[in-house]
């Protein structure tokens, strides 16, 4: 989680600096692709602030109102980021691009655009590098086969959101550079407008994909298949366990997992023996899945 927070902070600083530079470039040249890039960078900065707020609120411990803690605050704010800010930035970019279609070409010195976008590409590439490293580490730890699988199965919504934003930022800067260049060379504003539309559509598409993943986490998503298999193996390996009758899990946050299991113990165990075995089961589960911090065992003795 520390690495995720670092990724978010790096993205926030990069977005704020770049947003100011892009807006200045837009004012000097009038290229709408630069305005759409400004929208994106501003929304990106807002995204990071909301994600950091989610981190802060999720650190509050359990209370009477929130007996399982507030770990899902991270999922909620990641969802707000994708739906609200990603959607607004994407729509604004498409609107500006569509509005610029058919407008007359205005001669301008676009070198400032190249300088700003070049610097933005360096900043965004570094932010993407940091977020990619976080995704790769999670992929290695969880045993995911690819980054696509990590996107689909990861429980770290803030990391997914930051990584996706940084990826879109890099692609968006490249598209903006292409749009500015083609419009400057040909005098056809359609290229600049099309670049803005493409950036907006890409934002909206990925917003929907992220919102879908975050929705699943908010509703209540269980552990991965590998982790579930680890829990089952840990329980089965405990002496005194005769049969695992039911197992249910749910992520309460990226690093908090609820485990509820119904276990049939050996009929020769007395009350003290069952209690001792339950403690062993809980320790075995935590050894395999350290995030399992809420474990509830329903004990059943076999009726002779």
From TrEMBL:
Boundaries of each Cation efflux protein cytoplasmic domain copy?
A: 227-300
Indicate what this protein is called per its UniProt record. Zinc/cadmium/cations transporter
Record localization = Membrane
Transmembrane regions = 75-92, 112-129, 159-182, 188-212
Tell me one GO biological process term. Answer: zinc ion transport
Keywords for this entry? Answer: Membrane, Transmembrane, Transmembrane helix, Transport
Q: Which PANTHER family match?
A: HUEL-CATION TRANSPORTER (PTHR13414), PROTON-COUPLED ZINC ANTIPORTER SLC30A9, MITOCHONDRIAL (PTHR13414:SF9)
Q: Which residues form the Cation efflux protein transmembrane domain?
A: 8-218
User: Which superkingdom, per the lineage?
Assistant: Archaea
> Could you tell me which SUPFAM superfamilies the record lists for this protein?
Cation efflux protein cytoplasmic domain-like, Cation efflux protein transmembrane domain-like
Topologically, how does it sit relative to the membrane?
Answer: Multi-pass membrane protein
Please tell me one Gene Ontology term that the record gives under cellular component: membrane
Taken from the record, one Pfam family name reads Cation_efflux
Please list the GO terms describing molecular function. Answer: monoatomic cation transmembrane transporter activity
Would the keyword Ubl conjugation turn up in this protein's UniProt record?
A: no
Q: State the organism named in the record.
A: Natronococcus pandeyae
> Does the entry feature the keyword Transport, yes or no?
yes
């Amino acid at each position: 989680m520390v690495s995720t927070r670092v990724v978010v902070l790096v993205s926030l600083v990069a977005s704020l600096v770049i947003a100011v530079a892009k807006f200045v470039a837009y004012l000097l040249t009038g290229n709408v692709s630069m305005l759409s890039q400004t929208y994106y960078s501003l929304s990106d900065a807002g995204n990071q602030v909301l994600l950091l707020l989610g981190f802060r609120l999720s650190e509050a411990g359990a209370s009477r109102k929130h007996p399982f803690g507030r770990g899902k605050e991270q999922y909620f704010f990641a969802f707000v980021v994708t739906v609200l800010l990603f959607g607004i930035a994407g729509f604004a970019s498409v609107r500006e691009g569509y509005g610029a279609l058919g407008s007359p070409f205005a001669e301008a010195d676009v070198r400032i655009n190249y300088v700003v976008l070049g610097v933005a590409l360096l900043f965004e590439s570094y932010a993407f590098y940091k977020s990619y490293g976080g995704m790769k580490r999670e992929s290695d730890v969880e045993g995911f086969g690819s980054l696509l699988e990590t996107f689909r199965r990861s429980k770290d919504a803030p990391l997914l959101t930051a990584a996706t934003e940084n990826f879109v930022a890099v692609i968006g800067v490249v598209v903006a550079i292409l749009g500015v260049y083609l419009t400057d060379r040909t005098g056809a504003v359609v290229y600049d407008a099309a670049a803005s539309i493409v950036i907006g559509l890409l934002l909206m598409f990925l917003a929907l994909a992220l919102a879908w993943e975050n929705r699943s986490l908010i509703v209540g998503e269980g552990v991965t298949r590998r982790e579930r298999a680890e829990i089952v193996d840990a329980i089965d390996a405990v002496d005194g366990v005769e049969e695992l009758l039911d197992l249910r899990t749910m992520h309460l946050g990226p690093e908090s997992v609820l485990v509820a299991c119904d276990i049939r113990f050996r009929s020769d165990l007395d009350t003290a023996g069952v209690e001792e075995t339950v403690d062993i089961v809980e320790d075995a589960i935590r050894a395999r899945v350290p995030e399992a911090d809420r474990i509830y065992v329903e004990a059943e003795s076999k009726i002779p």
